[in-house]
Structure formats: structure tokens, C-alpha cells
Amino acid sequence: MSTGTEPRGASVTSANPVIDDAGVTAMLERGRTLAMPVLRAAVDRLAPPMDTVAAYHFGWIDAEGRPSAGDSGKAVRPALALLSAEAAGASPEVGIPGAVAVELVHNFSLLHDDLMDGDEQRRHRDTVWKVHGPAQAILVGDALFALANEILLELGTVEAGRATRRLTVASRKLIDGQAQDISYEHRERVSVEECLEMEGNKTGALLACAVSVGAVLGGADDATADALETYGYHLGLAFQAVDDLLGIWGEPEVTGKRPWSDLRQRKKSLPVVAALASDGSASRQLADLLAADAKSSDIDSFDEQEFATRAALIEEAGGRAWTSEEAVRQHATAVAALQGVDMPAAVRQQLVELADFVIVRRR
């Protein structure tokens, strides 16, 4: 069990894979470079002012409409979509419509999540609802969701229809996960199994789609696409476990979010749920504090020490260590799923390297 002495921002997982930083950066940059022109063209289809609001969200312009080189995200999903096309023996360009469609759905969810969660910062900037208002955040999110399906269906192929079906199923699961996440905020207790189901829906489903959609567009059969989905689903659970750790112990200057952001939002994330499920004094103290917080309207006025106390209790009760170990377990399950897919060795290695990157990232 953790002693609670590790500093905030320390390594979030107990795995220490050797990461080829240059190789991972190149993979992510390729996904961003190939998908970006098509993504921008899709956003340009939106009616004003939604096109401008979306451009702000993606970091292409600032709040005054001036060109900006804002952080547009890690681009893990586009990278996976291009790699999945190559896993099916197609060129990476075949996966571009899938990469763009998945990125549009992902950003639809971010726009809505920021509003529902009351998040005022994303990627070191004010969120869309804070700058342009809740109505625009909702409308632009809806528009991005519609564009995602349009981008795939306008290909007019059998493979595009199969890919769209996988995207719509993943989108429905993503929405299910967000609904579960919100409902759990108002419950005193959530089981670890419920939390994993929620995170599998909210994060795993779309990553699973990202790493299968390119393969489907490239003509892969369902068995191949399903195996890639299994990799993506468990990669998503590893990704979310790390996110949950960063949501409590991440460094604000790196994550772009407020300190203790998930505790401020009363989220029943994996470290919290695992800590509450343990049997010990710290777990009981934490349960009492969170039960009182749930009935309080003053949590926004808490000082840093009050959130630090809750984080320390989560760590003392084993929630941080368990979540780190769960990220490693899900990573191993994801990598094992690749053994069932016949693909070029270089593509397999890149998928493994991306999985390694997910569990050691700091934002």
C-alpha cells in the first residue's frame, strides 16, 4: 500500500517500458498531419458562427478569432486509425476518413462534457462554453457528431457502411458512459465493476472504434476488426486509468486543468472507487468526507489543503496504487489481443509502442 508520501505529478503507473519518444512522436504527428486538412475542411462546412466556435475549440484560432497554434490534443485516435488501415494491408491514407470521423465524435463529447462537468479550462485555454456560451457548445458538439457520420457515408462504399455502423455503436456507448459518469457523482458508493464498465463505455469504445475503423475501410474482415477492437477497448481502459490518476495527481501546468480537478467535480473515478472498496481507517475516513461533500454546496470554496487531504486518504487507502496496477493490467491485455491479428511486423510494433506511451504519459 502507498504511504501517501509521493509528490503530486510523480509517475502515475508502476510499469516502466522503454519508450521510443521519436517514434511515437512521429506516429502521432503523421496522424495529425494527414487528418488535419480533411478535419478542417469538414469544420468549414458548418454554418457561422459554429465554424468559428469549432475552430476555437480545436485551437486553430483564439477567442478573438486570430490564428492560433493552440494545443489540439494528443492525436492518439487518428494515429490508431491510420495504423489500423496498414494492419489490413492498405495504405494509411485509406484510414483518413475514419481518423477524422473518430476525432469529430471525440470532440463532440469533449464540448458536451466540459459543459456538463462545469470545466472552465481545456488544453490550457478557456473552454467553449465559457467563451461562447452553453448554447454554442451544445450546437457545435451536435454538428461535429453529424459531420462524423457524413464524412464516412459520403464515401459510398460497403466498407464505409460497415465503418459507420461501428462508429455509431461506439458513439452510443460513449454517451452511455457519460450518463453513467454523471449519475455516479450523486451516489455515495460505486463498485469497481461499475466504474470499469462506465470507463469502458466512455473511453474504451471510441478507442476501440479508432483502431478498427481504418482496417474496415481497408477491407479487413470482421474477425480482424474485432481483434483490433479488443486491443483498442483495453487500451482505452488503460488510457482512462491514467487519466484518472492525472485527474487527481497530475501537474496543472502539464494537464491544463485545475489542481485536484476530479475531486472538485466529485467524480467517482477509479482511484476513489478502489479506495472506498478497501477495508481500513483511511477508506472509512474518506467515505465520511465524501458523504459530507455530496450534501454540501460549498465544495467550490474548499482550499487546497481540503482537496490534498482527500487525495492523501485515497492514496493511503490504496486507490492510487490499485489504479496504477490496473493501467498495467489493461495495457497487457491490449497488447495480447494483437497476437490474433495477421499484420506487418512493423505495424504491430507501432501499436505496441503507442500502448506503452499511453501508460507513461503525463497529460
UniProtKB/TrEMBL annotation:
Keywords: Magnesium, Metal-binding, Transferase
Protein's UniProt keywords contain Metal-binding: yes
UniProt-listed InterPro entries: Isoprenoid_synthase_dom_sf (IPR008949), Polyprenyl_synt (IPR000092), Polyprenyl_synt_CS (IPR033749)
Positions of transmembrane segments: none
Pfam families found in the cross-reference section: polyprenyl_synt
SUPFAM superfamilies attached to this UniProt entry: Terpenoid synthases
Domain of life: Bacteria
Family statement drawn from the similarity comment of this UniProt entry: Belongs to the FPP/GGPP synthase family.
Name of the protein: Polyprenyl synthetase family protein
Organism of derivation: Streptomyces meridianus
Top-level taxonomy: Bacteria, Bacillati, Actinomycetota, Actinomycetes, Kitasatosporales
